[in-house]
Predict the 3D structure of the following.
Amino acid sequence: MHVALFNSLQAARSAKTPVALVTVLSDGGQSLVFADGVEGGLPEPVIVEVRQRLRDNAGGVIEHGGTRYFVDCHNPPLRIIVIGAVHISQTLVPMAAIAGYEVIVVDPRASFATAERFPNVRLVDDWPDEAMEALAPDSRTAIITLTHDPKLDDPALEVALKSEAFYIACLGSRRTHARRLERLRALGFDDATLGRIHGPAGLHIGAVSPAEIALSILAELTAVLHEVETVAKAA
Amino acid sequence: MTEANAFASQDDILATAGSWVAEGRKVAIATVVKTWGSSPRPVGSRLVVDGDGAMVGSVSGGCIEGAVIKEAFDVMSGGKPRLLDFGVSDEQAWDVGLACGGKVEVWVERLEG
């Protein structure tokens, strides 16, 4: 790989621009394919297929005219938006970062969302509905509410449920969750939509400590991401 | 390889390759391009090696890294980029391969400074 192409690749990745690195698996010729442009030279049908794969985040080998091309998709990292700079967030955030997620913590309460409690993470101190509108969750975003406070969790959920977020979860007991669903139902959300919420958040692994709860939530999120059935929650 | 390196994200791996080249080190990048069966690392996984054998990332659970690094040395000393093919290991023949029964293709190229 020439360093010029490598630098373009790294620049696109740090700008969070989706890009595919395409390698001809014979002579090693390489190109970058963006949604709206190409750096290098590739046959048009290959570009079309690469763009589809980039949208699907599905890297792999494709063949065209007897030539094999390796498509390496670089989409921005999956995001987790955490509502609530609470104790559980303090373990969930670094765990999620290790797992490769970009993590954003939303909490308008200044005493909670401090850099001391959350080093090296993006903290947003806007009200959750405003913060969520600005963050614009998409199909590569997960949303986890952890405050237990309807004033903070519910506005975030209203935005989450109107988005294509791949995972939406809420911390809180079954009773708390039932009340939450009632409030959201009163706002006009139907049962199918409310069924997208994982509540209480996390797999049933007997989690007690903040770290264990964080682990159970990340495990459930991973299972949902990879569309794997999980063990049914204990009644 | 340290634990931290084994689990480094792709970000760190490519960034490391870039910083090594900027320091004037010879660098090769190995990338998993295709897998069959129960291969340990998915398509797009990377191993970056420098001229002294320092490495970050992985292309398998450690089964084929030795053979990949050997090819990487050749590529970074001016050899052509190449596609390597690894199948199930044949223990009788002391063959390099994957004990898990998977198959994997790995692309090895030099990062030119």
User: Anything to note?
Assistant: Confidence is low (pLDDT under 50) at residues 1-8 of chain B. The beta strands of chain B are 27-36, 46-50, 55-57, 82-86, 103-110. The helical segments of chain B are 3-6, 10-22, 65-76. Residues 3-110 of chain B form one domain.
